[in-house]
Write a structure and sequence with these properties.
5 strands; binds ligand Z5A
Length: 221
């Protein structure tokens, strides 16, 4: 019998501004790597040279900026690139792929936040990705006022999402919580207002509760 590599797991980290997604994605990867488990961290928008070009278009638009529906198409264009060229190959090698934002961000920001119909976003998702879904989604939940204070203390300049009104960020937060409530088998909500060490413990607990093979340091191959 050929020695077949077991397919990896796809974990997405979602949440509003300053929730600590990048911090926790990196910490989870370090913990798993210390256990001998091969990981890969990617991000959206981005994750490949092509998708990083789309990220630049999205986050630094000219003129009045994109229509929200155009943003949906651009986010999914980048996502197709990231899934095809980065995520899928790593999963096929047996890696644990940790993605800093994914399709739930489009539902939360462009859907709940900017009123693009959720059904239209889901239709684009199906057309772009087929049935491809995360195995586990960690939703880092935080009061937007606290999250925005964190990002502003990091840098004085705010990007075009950060500078939107608090009401917008509240709709995004509520959207993420609704997404989690609608998909309890896939999503775990983590209290991201806690100190980073406590959040990291909660993240690891959620991951090992879902994937027992990652608890004891058994490599994923
Ligand atoms: N977007 C969209 O609209 N639709 C989509 O489909 C997708 C994205 C995929 C991407 O920006 C933007 O794109 C995003 C939504 C939109 N809007 N914005 N802005 P980005 O990738 O550049 O930024 P981000 O994803 O929003 O990340 P962030 O909010 O800047 O940060 P974070 O990853 O959540 O947090 P962090 O970088 O780990 O930490 C932020 C700061 O807080 C930093 O100084 C940390 O040291 C600190 N931190 C982290 N954790 C803690 C705890 N627990 N306590 C205290 N301080 C902490």
């Amino acid at each position: 019998m050929p020695n077949r590599v077991r397919r990896g797991r796809f974990i997405t980290v979602e949440g509003g501004e300053g929730a600590g997604k990048s911090t926790q994605a990196a910490r989870l990867a370090e913990t798993l790597e210390r256990r001998g488990i091969a990981t890969l961290v990617t991000r959206e928008p981005g994750g490949t040279p092509e998708a990083e070009r789309i990220r630049a278009l999205l986050l630094d638009p000219v003129g009045a900026g994109w229509e929200a529906a155009t943003e949906v198409l651009l986010y999914f264009a980048g996502r197709v690139e990231n899934v095809a060229k980065t995520v899928e190959p790593a999963l096929a090698e047996g890696r644990i792929v940790i993605c800093d934002r994914f399709a739930d961000s489009t539902l939360a920001y462009q859907g709940y936040g900017a009123d693009v119909p959720l059904a239209a976003i889901r239709a684009v998702a199906d057309a772009a990705l087929g049935g491809f879904r995360p195995d586990l989604t960690l939703i880092l939940d935080i009061d937007p006022a606290l999250g925005l204070a964190r990002t502003r203390s990091r840098s004085a300049a705010s990007d075009r999402y950060e500078s939107r009104p608090l009401d917008y960020h509240r709709r995004v937060r509520d959207g993420f919580l609704e997404i989690a409530a609608d998909a309890p088998a896939r999503c775990v909500v983590v209290d991201a207002a806690q100190p980073a060490d406590r959040v990291a413990d909660a993240v690891l607990a959620a991951v090992t509760a879902r994937f027992a093979e990652l608890a004891g340091g058994t490599a994923s191959k």
